[in-house]
Each structure stands twice: as C-alpha cells, then as structure tokens.
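Q: Here's a chain of 256 amino acids. Please give me its 3D structure as tokens.
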Amino acid sequence: MRIPENSILRDVRDWCRAPACRNAAWASNKTARYLQLSSIRNKNMRLTQQKFQLPFRLGLIQGRGHMDRLLSTALHEARAGRETPGPQHLPQDDPLFPKLWDNPCWLSFRLNFLALQFNNPVYGRIQQQLGLLRPEFVVLWSLYLGDGLTLTEVVRSSNFPKNTLSRAVNKVATLGLIDREIDPSDQRRVTLTLTEKGRAAVVSVKELMLEHERAMLECLSPAERLTLSDLLTKMVVATGSWPRDLDMTAAEAATD
C-alpha cells in the first residue's frame, strides 16, 4: 500500500537525491514508498512514538549491488536468520532493540557492549585498588598467564597498540612490578617477568575478575558456554588474517 505523501517522505527523497548520496538508485518515489511507518504505543495503546524505517530485507529493495547484499546478509545474521527479532523478551521501545536487531554491525556492537560490562567495573576497581590503568594491568596479567614474554609478544596476545604497552611497561617496571632482562643469546631480545610484588598485585584482584565474569555467564547453560568459548576462540585465532587498516578505496567502490 502506498504511503501518502507528506513532509517526511519529501525530506527522505531530497536526502536521497543530495550530492552526498553516492548511490543514485535510491533517488526515486519507490524508495520513499518502501519506507514503513513504525508506531510505538504504551500499555494504554496511546501513541508515544512514530517513525519511518526501512523494512528488514533492505537488499531486496535497494537492488542487487554488492553493498546492498552485504547489508541484507548482515541484518539477516543480526536476527539469527529470523524474519522478526528473537524471543529475548525485549520491548520495542527499549533503546537496545534497534542496536540488537536492526544493526548491520551486530558483532562489533555485541562484543563492545559485553566488554564494557566487564571492563568498566573491573578496571575501575583495579585502578582504585592498585593505582594502575588498564594497559598497565594488561601487562601484568599477560605475564601472570605466561611469564618471560617480550613486549612484542605481550602486544600480540593483548591486541593493544605497541606504543601504549611500551609506556605501560615502563610504568610497571618503575613501580617494581616487573623486571626486564636481556636475553644472553640475543642482545636485542628483552624479556619481561613478574616480580613477587607484581604477582601479588594480580592475585589481589583475580578473584573479583573471575566472580564478575561468572556473573556475566550466568544466563548461559554449561553447553552454551562451551559453544561460545569455541566460537570466540575461532575468531581470535583468525584475527591474524584480518586487515589491520580500513581500505577506504574498496569501501567507496562498494557504494558506487
């Protein structure tokens, strides 16, 4: 059914025709007609919000260009293959709803959201208790799990920028939390080891880290936790083949 002409649709068409829009295929009345009117009502069925949004399968509307197919696939994955959002009992007026179900960058959102649920309280407590910033504690934690690493190896296992961890190493070494030793067989190789003071610092906060993570996993069954561990491990191992920088030329070409 055709949506009646109004100022919102005219604005959409004007935006689609603007020079900033690289895909001229959008600039048509057909584009505006495909916009759906989404109404959000409260328990008394009073209208609280009304907005225009694109239907789920954007790739079927915009054409069969490369970027359109990517977008359609991403949204399909975001909803785990469902035509409608999953059964997580999240109301449509919850601000998380579009971030979960209408978000083509669904993986990065989920990972970042969950990571912040851990990082903010845990590293806030670590800074308060030990006086260490996150990169500084990351150095200690890396050496606690595998002592005798080089700076390059700590960078590889933590994915922080090398210059960030280089400053962190200098800080924790000054505090007496790690020792730096030159490898006798290779003068260019400097290994990092925890001191007793550094190990005690890690042990003093390890329990709170573990307890917070266990609380985050509480919503998953034991089998789901094992599956999640396998899937995330597979992705972490695969990062070595991922691009390190954004290829803006390829991104622009995909939108042409």
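Q: Can you summarize the key feature?
A: The two ends are 30 Å apart (CA to CA).
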